[in-house]
Amino acid sequence: MSKNKNNKAIWGVRIKKATSSAFEKIGSSIDIDKRLYKEDIKVSKVHVEMLFKQKIISFKIKNKIIYGLEKIEKEIKNNKIHLTKKYEDIHMNIEKRLFEIIGDEAGYIHTARSRNDQVITDFKIWVKSSTEEICLKIDKIITSTLKLAEKNIYTIMPGFTHFKNAQAISFAHYLLAYIEMFNRDKRRFNNNLVSLNENPLGVAALSGTTFNINRNYTTKKLGFKKPTNNSIDTVSDRDFVLDYLYAISVCSMHISRIAEELIIWNSDAYNLIGLSDKIVTGSSIMPQKKNPDVLEYLRGKSGISYGNLFSMLTILKGLPLSYFKDLQDDKEIVFKANDTIKDCLIILDEFLKNFYPNKKQMLELANTGHITATDLADYLVKNYSMSFRKAYEKTSAIVNLAEKKKKNLSQLSLEELKIIEPKLTNKVLTVFDLKNSIKSKKSYGGTSFENIKRMIMKYKKQND
Ligand code: ARG
């Protein structure tokens, strides 16, 4: 068998010419998938252990291969290896280096496997640990949000619909809404673990293998829960990538909604929150400026996350089974998505630790816009056995009167209120108190101080 001097690739006997340098440049993925080196080596070690256990390779060869793989792992870690585009990707680079270290016996490593199952196995392990890291970062955000909420149970602000003052709420209740969003994000990421826990290793190129392999053994050793069922589907499937990118997209969307809201609250028009100098940026021309760039960064990054999801969906659209080179780009997309969301989560956590509510301004704003009108309507229903619609009409008339007199609801005298509803007594005046309003929202999930305290305890237990 004469090896081709020009083509040093594994397929050099069959393919006589070296790959065109133009194609090598774009077709190789080593610059991207070198991030999978640890997973690749782990998977290869378990693979050869299994081959030995099944009497497919000898003890001596298995040990030699493992020795070589461990040496390569150290070399890559210490940047002592030349990973080259010539060998396309991380899998071929490692195999090539194994030949250099242990000689021809390296040739046994690829028995009963293909890069097609190898790459997905590496990748699933990587995505699984990224998923766990992302969830830990979300936990940090939940902890920071909880701390802030605990300090602000009695901070009163207006709740908005259509950005018009709607009803009085506690700022803590608002913050706990973010926790619900992040808890759902975690659930979404964790749902993907069902797929991520299915072991692709052993399906080989697309049809399985003639060797008597043991997929249950590699499943256990690599921390999966079960082997995948169908070899063709296994090498074609990237649903776990889509689910991961979708979970990232939704999480980014949550972050961008929060960021947008905080940008508005920080604007001079609202001035509901202040930012520490640690997280603001200045202007090159306007000396007075303290800009919330950090929030704008967070708002913008959701665009990148959606882009990643749509890139992957588009790559998969219409792609026949099974492996095609198109799939190689999945890594670049996922790595980018991982880096972006992690940065966003770190930055959001920094933000949460470095901003404060302008309590006075929040209260002042809550005292405008007849924010206790619903409380008054509820009061009329409860005390004068009116239908809600009737009470709503009476309250509307009272709001009209207050507006005409250029007063807040709470500034109307009993006599004035009686013009609209003569049966009213002094007792009604308590409904205009914002604290009373919040206190009375006791229905499960409502903003009452008691509910908030209970929920804080619950989240704290969950996050312990
Ligand atoms: N670098 C390739 C990828 O990530 C590995 C799989 C190659 N398989 C093949 N049949 N060419 O997609």
Structure description:
Helix 9 (215-221) links the parallel strand 3 (198-199) and strand 4 (226-227). This protein has three domains: 21-111, Orthogonal Bundle (Fumarase C, Chain B, domain 1), CATH 1.10.275; 133-156 and 172-205 and 233-364, Fumarase/aspartase (Central domain) (Fumarase C, Chain A, domain 2); 367-462, Ribonucleotide Reductase Protein R1, domain 1. Helices cover 59% and strands 5% of the residues. It is elongated. The chain is mostly helical. The mean pLDDT is 96. Helix 3 (37-53) packs across helix 9 (215-221) and helix 7 (171-191) packs parallel to helix 19. A two-stranded antiparallel sheet has the order 1-2. Strands 3-4 form a two-stranded parallel ribbon. It is built from 19 helices and six strands. The protein has helices spanning 21-27, 30-33, 37-53, 59-77, 90-102, 115-151, 171-191, 193-196, 215-221, 231-236, 239-266, 293-316, 330-353, 359-366, 373-384, 388-404, 414-420, 434-439, 449-463; strands at residues 156-161, 164-170, 198-199, 226-227, 273-275, 355-357. Bound molecules: arginine. Arginine (ARG) is lined by residues 29, 33, 89, 115-116, 119, 323, 327-328.
Q: Give the beta-strand count.
A: 6
Order of helices and strands: HHHHHHEEHHEHEHHEHHEHHHHHH
Report mean pLDDT, rounded to a whole number: 96
Shape: elongated
Distance between the termini: 63 Å
Topology:
Layout: H1 21-27, H2 30-33, H3 37-53, H4 59-77, H5 90-102, H6 115-151, E1 156-161, E2 164-170, H7 171-191, H8 193-196, E3 198-199, H9 215-221, E4 226-227, H10 231-236, H11 239-266, E5 273-275, H12 293-316, H13 330-353, E6 355-357, H14 359-366, H15 373-384, H16 388-404, H17 414-420, H18 434-439, H19 449-463
Bound molecules: arginine.
Arginine is lined by residues 29, 33, 89, 115-116, 119, 323, 327-328.
